[in-house]
Write a structure and sequence with these properties.
261 residues; mainly alpha; 15 helices; 2 strands; globular
């Protein structure tokens, strides 16, 4: 999963659809809106409650994850591999503190979540992806999983689709962690942004997730995306972007706009 361009080796090819998906701040926000819904139901969510970082600052946690993702997707191969290794090291430290191991299926669930949300978010905002492009998204994240030492990962995109269905049946449930996380989302986002979050999740999250969370698929989101595109043509989106998240995260949000490094 590497390419060379003017003697520089990258983990993700410079022309990859994954770079295009993750190179736009709005798409990244949609990805994490979808992931926030599904992860609240994941049976391993208690691990993030062990550190206290997720409920204390869910938006800050988002940007921490984005930082790792950017290093993997946009940076040189050595930097990307170092970011993956660091990510595994951080989790190993948490395991040591708790005296237990995070199960492999929990790591796989996160990879599957990112594959799914990357595809659905881009398709909602931009256009339908081809089968080849979806397979490329799949390969990038599966390569990350392989680097982390995960086993029993699917080999093909079609295998992932089948395994994804099983995972959504086996690994999600509504719990007290789910309820508390949504309280934290509302607290840190404010009422208006929280309502927008729910609307976006209702379009992006898988059917099983929507059912457990009581999310409704709203036609408002595609209409809002269309209007946002019109506004973008006249460069007026720059006036709206700072308000998509609380102002204290303005700098981190603008960092997501930088794309390739």
């Amino acid at each position: 999963m590497i390419t060379e361009e003017t003697d520089i080796t990258y983990f993700v090819p410079t022309g990859s659809i994954v770079r295009k998906i993750w190179g736009r701040a709005e798409t990244v926000l949609f990805i994490f809106a979808g992931a926030a819904a599904e992860f609240s139901l994941n049976k391993s969510v208690d691990w993030l409650y062990f550190t206290g970082k997720l409920p204390h600052d869910p938006i800050g946690r988002l940007f921490s994850t984005v930082s790792y993702a950017r290093k993997i997707i946009f940076f040189k191969e050595n930097t990307a591999l170092g970011a993956i290794d660091k990510m595994r090291q951080v989790h190993t430290t948490v395991e040591g503190a708790r005296g237990a191991s995070i199960p492999d299926w929990a790591y796989r669930d996160v990879l599957y979540m990112l594959i799914y949300c990357s595809i659905t978010s881009f398709e909602l905002i931009e256009r339908r992806l081809t089968k080849e492009e979806k397979e490329e998204v799949f390969r990038v994240f599966i390569t990350v999983g392989q680097r982390m030492g995960l086993t029993d990962l699917p080999i093909t995109f079609d295998e992932w689709v089948a395994d994804r269905r099983k995972q959504l049946v086996q690994d999600i449930e509504k719990s007290n962690f789910t309820l508390d996380l949504y309280k934290q989302y509302r607290k840190h986002l404010g009422l208006l942004r929280y309502i927008i979050l729910l609307k976006v999740q209702g379009r992006i999250a898988p059917e099983e997730v929507r059912r457990l969370l009581g999310l409704k698929s709203s036609a408002i989101v595609p209409a809002a995306v269309w209007l946002y595109k019109i506004v973008s043509i006249f460069k007026m989106d720059q006036l709206l972007k700072p308000y998509l998240l609380p102002l204290k995260y303005k700098r981190q949000f603008m960092e997501m706009e930088k794309g390739e490094t």
